[in-house]
């Protein structure tokens, strides 16, 4: 098994910046207990930082689960900005809505139940698009969503290194689409793209015009 | 020896985004031939992206070498923005000046020979401070430079994981100062800080006010 980042280094980073926030910790515990996939905490920190830097008006997230990544992003939003969460499972979104309400962030969020790709296309001038849905849908997400991005938008995708499987030939159902997605964005003339090996790999593409 | 990022993953990223730019390739060759330390190419891409996102007016670099990192940053600067290169060795800066002139970027750059810490303090309202000088000086760089940052500034430092030595007890001349630097920024109330395990580790700290 490939460790994208050396485990000692990963531990160093976790120890250097211990998390004390009860809401984040509770969500991490919930994910562990349910065996539900959420972003790595270091990816959460990174998303928070990218959001602070970008200062978006509108964020759309494709595949929100129960809201862990959305919380990291929403905490970096300025007044008047909002994030759209999309998720198939109503009960996940209900949990997210509860967390956002407790946090005082409910008015910065829209909670949309259903097909993330269909819902996402209802929005235009998206400043940050965060993709974290089923991996085999990543290339389809580009086709659907690129026309809906604002100038100088930031496209971010989690799992771009897919547990290291991008360097293997296994698991083709998800692996080939992730590799194709990485290739499309890396070669796209309208974006500057880089993949950062944090957590499970984060692709970041900045729209150049 | 610790590989911060798995070597197969590092190769995947290099292959996915092959560099064809003759100036960057020549500088990488020069560094190799001279055994001169420059940032990892993936760190270069990351700096470029952070600069696109931040849209700074003024960038100050502490420790410019012969200008490889500065070139990645300068190519992302908007009209009217500038980068200050600082470096002890006059011949390194002369080389950088030549590259920037060929590139048509000379008017966006200032080339300052001397002590980086002293020179850096001549500037105020710095939007991006990039630290890549002698590692034992990293904590001193904070003391000297934090008062010179603009609101919402971005502080970036290379080698924050110091070839993985931050998890070892060796090499205390440089290692302890790097660890101390990471701790100071991680605990600083005025910054949101994260360390991204790209290349040799990049610390990014966003000033919250």
UniProtKB/TrEMBL annotation, chains A, B:
Top-level taxon of the source organism: Bacteria
Record Pfam families: Methyltransf_3
Give the residue range of the signal peptide. Answer: none
A single Gene Ontology biological process assigned to it is: methylation
GO molecular function per UniProt: O-methyltransferase activity
PROSITE patterns hit by this protein = SAM_OMT_I (PS51682)
Keyword list (alphabetical) reads: Methyltransferase, S-adenosyl-L-methionine, Transferase
Q: Which InterPro entries match?
A: SAM-dependent_MTases_sf, SAM_O-MeTrfase
Q: What is this protein called?
A: SAM-dependent methyltransferase, putative
Instruction: Report the source organism.
Output: Geotalea daltonii (strain DSM 22248 / JCM 15807 / FRC-32)
